[in-house]
Design goal:
This protein is mostly beta strands and 62 residues long. It has one domain. Helix content is 0%, strand content 53%. A hairpin with a 6-residue loop joins strand 3 and strand 4.
C-alpha cells in the first residue's frame, strides 16, 4: 500500500512540512500534532477535496 502525505504550514512558525495523511475513507479527521520544526502544538484537519486528502493546520487558539 502506498503512503500518502499532506503538506501543512505551521500556524506558529510558518514552516511547511509533510505529515502522513489518513486514507480517503477515514476523512474528515482531526489530529493533535506538534510542529516538527518549532514543537508548538496544533490541530491538523484532514478533509476530502476532489478525491484527494488535503490538510489544514490550526493553532490551539484558532
Amino acid at each position: 500500500m502506498e503512503s500518502d502525505f499532506a503538506s501543512i504550514t505551521c500556524p506558529t512558525c510558518f514552516q511547511t512540512f509533510d505529515v502522513p495523511a489518513p486514507a480517503l475513507s477515514e476523512v474528515p479527521a482531526e489530529l493533535d500534532y506538534d510542529c516538527e520544526i518549532c514543537c508548538r502544538p496544533m490541530i491538523i484537519l484532514f478533509h476530502e477535496n476532489m478525491g484527494a486528502v488535503t490538510a489544514e493546520a490550526r493553532g490551539l487558539d484558532d
